[in-house]
Design brief:
heterodimer, A: 6-stranded antiparallel β-sheet, about 20% strand, elongated, B: alpha/beta, Rossmann fold, globular
């Protein structure tokens, strides 16, 4: 039985063992299976990571966090983003620092060390591509610490942000392009623009050539100052102009990669072949096109022929060209419109110039300018393409709730991309019916005042963008100024008319005044004279004496009236010289003859010295006689003993006339005063000596109207000499002072 | 027969001064107060000389003179403007209207007389 028991025992153990084994096996199998799954997962994840790293536009890297910060890992993407093999970076500890852009290196190293101290961060810089050009990267990293908090490694990524930087630069360029307002600034603007463009695109040469108005030449207007600027060069638009002319004419970019000699068709022909770089190296010529029309070309070049033309550069170059074309066209139109807009006060000239300037900047199916006129709105300009109707000359009442009213009131532009889905104002529905889909309405502001609005309508939805506002705004503001100028001019004209009417009134008033004062004076002086002539019987001596005084006062009053009127006429600018030929000798003799009896009465010697060869003269004979009469009359009046001497000479186209007396003389302080109104050297003289005190003042003005000068030389007790110079030929009356 | 002078003047005082002055030296005077009656009287009375004010009610002196000078039978009659329009240019306007002479108010009576005698020699009066 023992053996049976043993056998049974053995059998049991085997079973148990087998079960164990199966269990182990199962466990093992399970483990194996599990292990297999893990392996699979691991394999998958790595593959995925590999995939992710290879397709990501970023380069992933790890660095040592101390020592020489050597690179411990870098993703494969390094190769297709930067053109370097992974091992180039892994084997060279200085790889990163030596490939930084020299202008960025100092800043970037300082920033990176500072950020490592802070546990991580982000920094932007330029890094050299294996073909030599630089691209912009954003480098974002974190410092990984061990359990003890010591820096273990740096994990980071580089993202290529060249496109974003380009976009930013273009925005800068775009903004710059809006700033050029005058042709004088164009050259400087062009140079700045190109310099920025050259930096952004890593070019060695960038030039702009514009076509001349006849379309015969391309002329360099701007160039970067580096290698071989085109300077004064101009190239004919034709076969001799090679690639430059070809790009201009075909409106297609012409590119040469610089790997082989430039083909004959693209070469500049003698004598225009002086641009050496252009003959042998990589270049791209992009036409400057505005609204389908070539206005010039943008020429870009690379210094190193080993660097092939990068097709990726073409797109930004095209952008640059578009921008430059627009800016130059903008500037040109602006310059062309400027004289009309700025100088013309005739709005009939301004509006067409404005419509033309805008047409070249933006497409429209209808353009219009609306200006307020009293309580109405007048469509001062409207040009429309069918089916839209021009509103030229129409007049509407000012109505609230319209787009025009809103723009005028709020001084804000209105831009609608699609009117069919965005109808805010009362007139929008009508516009949609007409077929208008997009519209742009700008206020015309001058000195903070709305002088009108300007609108563009288009049948195309989305025809206008925010950027277009900036584009047309300077031209619109010029128009606003022109409208304001024209209005000011109209106001001034109106004021001038009013002044003229006022002056006519004044003139009429003076005439009436003269007439009305003379009429009663005629009765006074007339009766007095008749009585004195004994017409009404013999007049007793005592009454005669009084009547003589009455007569004298009456004549003094008459003199005053004449002088005051003369002076008022001069002051009002109403005194018109009657310029005719005259003889100075006759004038002098006439004046002297008039006062001869007065001199004889006072027993004064009246001497006249006129050379016989005085030239024929031109001037207002009557007024000049009046002046001389006044001077000689005064001299006689104020001189009691001695002589009055009149001398005339002519030299250098002018008469020199002097009237000298042996009278009391005039103190120096009074010598200026006597030419002012109602001033005599000694006012107590007025009544005694007669005269109104206006004579010299009138004489001075008459002489000045002739372009002459009058003054006195005198000292007390030594007599006075009045001198005057008078142009022999006076062709125009001067302004009264 | 004394010479007949037509005075056309709206102001009483001025008419009287002329009347007193001219009759004192032997002229025969006829008077009109307006331009219209002045023209009518010139046609009717054929004076030897006319003294004409310019600012008159109704027809003014310029127009009255124009009408008288437009009549061939009256044209030889000398017309002297006696006027307070004494500003520069007023004389030219007067000559253009057809006046033969121009005397401004206030006039010196003797000078006016001398002017009249230029047209009416003293021997005839």
């Amino acid at each position: 039985m023992a053996s049976l028991e043993f056998e049974q025992e053995l059998e049991k153990r085997v079973k148990e063992r087998t079960a164990e084994l199966i269990k182990i096996n199962e466990s093992l199998n399970r483990q194996i299976t599990e292990r297999k799954g893990v392996d699979m997962e691991l394999k998958d994840a790595r593959a995925r990571l590999q995939y992710v790293l290879s397709v990501t536009p970023a380069v992933i890297y790890t660095n040592q966090a101390s020592g020489d910060y050597a690179c411990t890992f870098v993703s494969e993407s390094l190769e297709h983003i930067m053109g370097y093999a992974q091992k180039e970076m892994l084997e060279d500890p200085d790889f990163w620092t030596t490939h930084l852009h020299p202008q960025d290196a100092r800043r970037v190293l300082a920033d990176v060390f500072r950020l490592i101290g802070q546990g991580g961060g982000s920094v932007e810089y330029r890094f050299r591509h294996c073909d030599g050009h630089y691209r912009w990267f954003q480098d974002t990293f974190r410092v990984i610490n061990d359990d003890a908090g010591r820096p273990l490694e740096i994990v980071g990524s580089w993202a290529d942000i060249t496109q974003r930087k380009l976009a930013e630069s273009f925005n800068v360029l775009y903004q710059a392009s809006l700033q050029i307002q005058e042709p004088l600034g164009l050259k400087k603007w062009g140079d700045d623009f190109l310099r920025k463009g050259r930096e952004v695109l890593h070019l060695d040469r960038l030039n702009i050539l514009l076509a001349d108005p006849e379309g015969k030449w391309l002329e360099a207007v701007s160039s970067t100052e580096t290698e071989e600027p085109l300077g004064e060069i101009r190239v004919p638009i034709g076969p001799e102009g090679g690639g430059l002319a070809q790009a201009y004419q075909s409106r297609q970019a012409v590119i040469w990669d610089g790997q082989t000699p430039v083909p004959d068709t693209l070469r500049l022909k003698s004598p225009y072949d002086q641009i050496e770089a252009f003959q042998s190296r990589a270049f791209a010529i992009v036409p400057l096109v505005v609204q389908g029309k070539s206005i010039g070309v943008l020429e870009a070049g690379w210094k190193h022929s080993r660097r092939p033309f990068d097709p990726a550069t073409l797109e930004p170059l095209q952008l640059l060209a578009t921008q430059a074309a627009l800016a130059f066209e903008h500037a040109r139109l602006y310059a062309a419109a400027q004289p009309v807009l700025r100088r013309s006060l005739q709005l009939e000239e301004v509006y067409p110039a404005f419509a033309k300037a805008v047409k070249a900047l933006l497409a429209y199916d209808r353009i219009g300018v609306i200006v307020p006129e009293g309580e109405k709105l007048l469509v001062a300009l409207s040009v429309a393409e069918p089916p839209l109707a021009s509103w030229q000359g129409q007049s509407w009442p000012k109505t609230q709730g319209t787009a025009v009213d809103w723009v005028m009131t709020h001084k804000q532009p209105r831009l609608v991309r699609d009117l069919s889905t965005n109808q805010t104002f009362s007139d929008d529905a009508f516009m949609v019916q007409e077929g208008v889909r997009s519209t742009l309405v700008l206020p015309l502001l001058a000195g903070g005042k709305t002088v009108g609005v300007f609108f563009l309508d288009s049948l195309t939805p989305g025809a206008y963008t925010e950027r277009d506002l900036d584009l047309v705004d300077p031209v619109a503001q010029q128009l606003a100024l022109a409208i304001e100028n024209a209005q000011l001019f109209r106001d001034i004209e109106e004021k001038g008319r009013q002044i003229e009417i006022a002056s006519q009134h004044k003139s009429q008033f003076l005439a009436n005044m003269s007439h009305e004062l003379r009429t009663p004076l005629n009765a006074i002086l007339g009766y007095t004279a008749l009585i004195l002539d004994n017409i009404y019987g013999e007049v007793p001596e005592k009454i005669r004496e009084v009547l003589m005084r009455l007569d004298k006062s009456g004549h003094h009053l008459l003199g005053l009236i004449s002088d005051v009127l003369d002076l008022s006429k001069i002051e009002a600018g109403l005194l018109k010289l009657n310029l005719t030929d005259y003889s100075m000798k006759d004038v002098v003799l006439t004046a002297v003859a008039e006062v001869e009896s007065l001199a004889a009465e006072k027993k004064l010697a009246l001497k006249v010295a006129t050379p016989s060869d005085l030239p024929r003269a031109k001037g207002d004979e009557r007024r000049i006689t009046q002046v001389l009469l006044n001077l000689v009359g005064n001299a006689i009046k104020f001189t009691d003993v001695g002589e009055v001497r009149v001398e005339v000479a002519a030299s250098n186209g002018a008469f020199q006339i002097s009237v000298a007396d042996t009278g009391p003389g005039i103190a120096e302080v009074d010598q200026e005063k006597i030419f002012e109104e109602f001033q005599q050297a000694d006012s107590s003289n007025t009544r005694e000596k007669g005269g109104t005190g206006l004579g010299l003042s009138i004489a001075k003005r008459i002489i000045e109207l002739h372009g002459g000068r009058i003054w006195v030389e005198s000292s007390l007790g030594k007599g006075s000499t009045f001198r005057l110079t008078l142009p022999v030929h006076v062709e125009h009356q001067l302004e009264a002072k | 027969m004394s010479k007949r002078i037509l005075v056309i003047e709206d102001q009483e005082d001025n008419r009287r001064i002329l009347r007193d002055l001219l009759t004192s030296v032997g002229y025969e005077l006829i008077e009109a107060v307006t331009g219209d009656t002045g023209v009518t009287m010139a046609e009717k009375h054929r004076p030897d000389l006319i003294l004409m004010d310019i600012q008159l009610p109704g027809l003014d002196g310029y127009e009255a003179t124009r009408r008288i000078k437009a009549n061939p039978e009256l044209r030889p009659i000398p017309i002297i403007a006696v006027t307070s329009f004494a500003l520069s240019g007023d004389d030219i306007k007067a000559y253009k209207a057809g006046f033969d002479a121009y005397v401004t108010k206030p006039y010196v009576p003797r000078q006016l007389l001398a002017k009249i005698r230029e047209y009416l020699p003293a021997s005839d009066s």
